[in-house]
């Protein structure tokens, strides 16, 4: 019984936020001290490191569960399935529904229950639940779907990654320029007839001994702001070093388990966290096999879409499979890798044959 992806969809917000929009922000260090550079210099250095030129934000009247719905509807249409036949709806996110200009996260009912409700699914045997696993949440959701299918508990699952990080960023933290909003979704189905395609292997790991709080919720860098509100924060350098030390090996372990060779890998759909970091991860991954990374192996969207956490991997996968990302395509039989790293600290990977 193979688990194959039969439908993909994504929602990319229409609101564009270019780097120039941060030129009038008041940025501070974590200790509240100011920077010795003008914002134009800060923005230039930020772009050089992350590759981000602009990002996308949702409109004020939307919340995470609604953009998750949009991506889900696209994936369901792409798979040409009856939504009533879904066995599971798994929604990966981290912050729930947060309305515009609010600090209250709303997670009851769950995002998955809200998506099922908005899809108007009547079947009570369609189980809906949320998955909080940091940025690797969507990849982990696909692994869950694979487990349900292998165990005979499901034949068809909807896995969504959706996030509105614009609702949890500190405007006085330069890291706020990294984050964006978006949603991506896939239909994972069981098949007995397609014996060549499907998930070949997967791997997951959680590091918490020293790494649990590399990404956390904290107060504003502007110490004059004392309203009790908390924002997404991270230790960027520690995350960078952690990712470079652990993600390439996790990807290698996963590929080795799959039985496929490094020469067969056509594309790597990696979490769009930081352009320089992702490039370094891929370079180290191929180096573990004594070879160099092909120039076109890693599709990137971070320059225009920013880092939308759980949504980055399914979104870039959707764009490539539908021929919407110039210079990239996948074909039947291609070996691809999905990989991510994020809060937890969590790492995961999937080797998949198209």
Describe the structure.
The chain is an alpha/beta fold and 354 residues long. The chain contains 8 helices and 13 strands. The chain has a 5-stranded mixed beta sheet, with helices on both faces. A 4-stranded mixed beta sheet has the order 8-13-12-11, sandwiched between helices. Strands 2-3 form a two-stranded antiparallel sheet.
**Separation of termini?**
16 Å
Radius of gyration: 20 Å
Major beta sheet summary: 5 strands, mixed
Number of helices: 8
Proportion of β residues? 15-25%
Calculate the mean pLDDT score and round it. 95
> Which residues form runs of ≥5 with pLDDT under 50?
none
| Element string (H = helix, E = strand) | EEHEHEHEHEEEEEHEHHHEE
- Give the strand line-up of the largest sheet: 1-7-6-4-5
Percentage of residues assigned to helices: 25-40%
Q: What best-fitting shape do the alpha-carbon axes yield?
A: globular
Give the tally of β-strands: 13
- Helix/strand-derived category reads alpha/beta
């Amino acid at each position: 019984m193979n688990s194959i992806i039969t439908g993909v969809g994504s929602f990319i917000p229409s609101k564009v936020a270019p780097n120039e929009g941060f030129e009038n922000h008041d940025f501070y260090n974590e200790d509240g001290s100011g920077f010795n550079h003008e914002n134009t210099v800060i923005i230039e250095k930020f772009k050089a490191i992350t590759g981000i030129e602009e990002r996308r934000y949702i409109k004020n009247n939307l919340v995470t569960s609604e953009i998750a719905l949009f991506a889900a509807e696209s994936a369901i249409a792409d798979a040409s399935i009856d939504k009533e036949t879904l066995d599971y709806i798994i929604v990966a996110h981290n912050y729930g529904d947060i309305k515009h200009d609010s600090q209250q996260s709303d997670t009851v009912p769950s995002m998955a229950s809200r998506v099922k409700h908005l899809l108007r699914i009547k079947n009570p045997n369609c189980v809906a639940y949320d998955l909080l696993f940091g940025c690797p949440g969507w990849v982990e959701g696909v692994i869950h779907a694979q487990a349900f299918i292998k165990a005979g508990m499901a034949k068809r699952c909807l896995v969504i990654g959706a996030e509105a990080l614009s609702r949890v960023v500190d405007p006085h933290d330069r890291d706020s320029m990294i984050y964006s909003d978006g949603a991506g979704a896939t239909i994972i189905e069981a098949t007995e007839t397609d014996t060549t395609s499907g998930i070949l292997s997967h791997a997951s790991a959680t590091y918490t001994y020293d790494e649990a709080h590399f990404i956390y919720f904290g107060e504003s860098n502007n110490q004059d702001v004392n309203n009790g509100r908390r924002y997404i924060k991270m230790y960027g350098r520690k995350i960078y070093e952690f990712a470079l030390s652990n993600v390439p090996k996790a990807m290698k372990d996963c590929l080795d388990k799959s039985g496929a060779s490094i020469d067969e890998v056509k594309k790597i759909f990696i979490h769009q966290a930081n352009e320089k970091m992702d490039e370094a991860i891929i370079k180290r991954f191929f180096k573990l096999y004594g070879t160099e990374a092909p120039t076109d192996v890693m599709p990137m969207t971070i320059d225009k879409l920013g880092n939308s956490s759980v949504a980055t991997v399914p979104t870039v996968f959707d764009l490539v499979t539908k021929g919407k990302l110039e210079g990239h395509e996948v074909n039947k039989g291609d070996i691809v890798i999905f990989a991510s790293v994020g809060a937890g600290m969590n790492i995961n990977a999937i080797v998949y044959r198209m």
